[in-house]
Predict the structure of Biotin synthase.
Amino acid sequence: MLQSDLTAEVAGSRKLWTADEARALFDQPFMDLLFQAQTVHRRTFDPNRVQMSRLLSIKTGGCPEDCSYCSQSSRYDSGLSASKLIEVERVIAEARRARDAGATRYCMGAAWRSPKERDMAQVIAMVEGVKALGMETCMTLGMLDGDQAQRLKRAGLDYYNHNIDTSEAHYASVITTRTFADRLETLQNVRDSGIKVCSGGILGLGEGNQDRVEMLVTLANLPEPPESVPINMLIPVEGTPLADAAPVDPIDFVRTIATARIMMPESHVRLSAGRTGMSDEMQAMCFFAGANSIFVGDTLLTKDNPGEDLDMRLFARLGLKPMAAHEHHPEDRPAAPGEAQREALRRADPAIPVLR
């Protein structure tokens, strides 16, 4: 049955998953799961190309929400000081540096429950300025109403990130200041505006594998699945309720990536926060399982992230190449990598030949 499910997208139809079907997929022998995930991945994407995004915190700390994992909540003593919304000029300068370093999508995040009207003009100017650099634009600002989503769309916003975090059943154990339904409403407002949806979750919040599966079912069965699905591994933060959370089993994490790839074959599956706690081998397994997007740079909002040098060395070892801006499917990519790109990969690890 699982093999036939992999070809459910025929004649314009789309597979809608039950929790039992998704759990059977997740639980099958590991090698079978990886083989199926890689097979699905190759139908839509070049398996050797990875989309690279850069994330900037445009307003840090002071958030009134009680997300148990978050250092930016004002309810917890995480040692993080609140800051004001940063200047538009600084955002554009940082975006230009990210573009020049190889990032094709620029994501801007603010620690808000939802954006206030007084901040919308500045936020819109950020979108317009980054868009003018030729980059894809993404924001995560908390909950959005329909009017706010429409205004961001008119400014040129390509993607909006709003994670559902976990399953609906486990959600109230993690967050109480906004509901699971609130998150789905924001995703619908974003979709209705014409902005692409970026939504995923976090592993390591005390959930079980059934919660992970049910989270993926919710995402895959949205009226349109998210174009980007970030899968995060919790980075425990001192002072938050999940500071002592048990680590995620690496095999279960890879299983989640593979299951996401099969259930959402046309989405970018992003290997997101937590990569500093992953070995190169674990990251390579995630790429094989269908992850094809990462955040680059030294920080993700307030958390550490592998730097570009480490990422380029790993890419060279694995024969991976960055996607171009606005590249989503194999037919979108340039005909061949340029000499400058090949030279950059050679410099990252001269002992590794770069295939032409």
DSSP finds 13 helices and twelve strands in the chain. The radius of gyration is 19 Å. The CA atoms of residues 58 and 257 lie 29 Å apart. The first strand starts at residue 49 and ends at 59.
